[in-house]
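USER: If only I could read backbone structure tokens as easily as an amino acid sequence. It would mean a lot if you studied the pair and described how this chain folds. Here is the record:
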Amino acid sequence: MSIFLKSTLRAAALARRDALSDGQRHDAARAIAARADVFDIKPGTIVAGYIPMRNEIDPRPLMLRLTARGAWLALPTVTGRDAPLAFRAWQADDALVAGPFGTSHPEDHAEEVVPDIVLVPLAAFDRRGHRIGYGGGYYDRTLTMLRAAGPIVAAGVAFAVQEVENVPASHHDAPLDFVLTDVGTIDFRS
């Protein structure tokens, strides 16, 4: 039942996201970047972002704002079908290569790093810190692995129109610490 419900919620949230204009997308990315102060950035903090696809909100303005505060950047790499993501160091002018599922990631020689903050793409989210991704479980596995090794911050990045009332979460779904949208920041840590 929850798989069907998740699929329905995902499709509806993605349809709302896809209906946004290019101008709305640009303005949303800038609004999120303006809230970069929600993150505690110390020199050398590693922030794992992503390259947007499928009409996802563009986190790169936020990522650049965080680098101006001393953060280092990384991007995810799919390493296997049921494996957690790996993260490779990346700078805004570094070359990217095509990965599975339409992703883009750093070249294989880029250094593998462990992020302190993970910016998480999503299809839908609720006010309890649960998210719906694209169904592969990559971020759930990755966040679980990273949290087992030490503290990290997982921040969903989305348009406000992707919010749903209730995500049916299961035991393997990794919750978020924040969601940053074009309308505001939702903090789930308290």
About this structure: The chain has a mean pLDDT of 94. The chain has one domain: 2-187. The chain is about 25% helix and 20% strand.
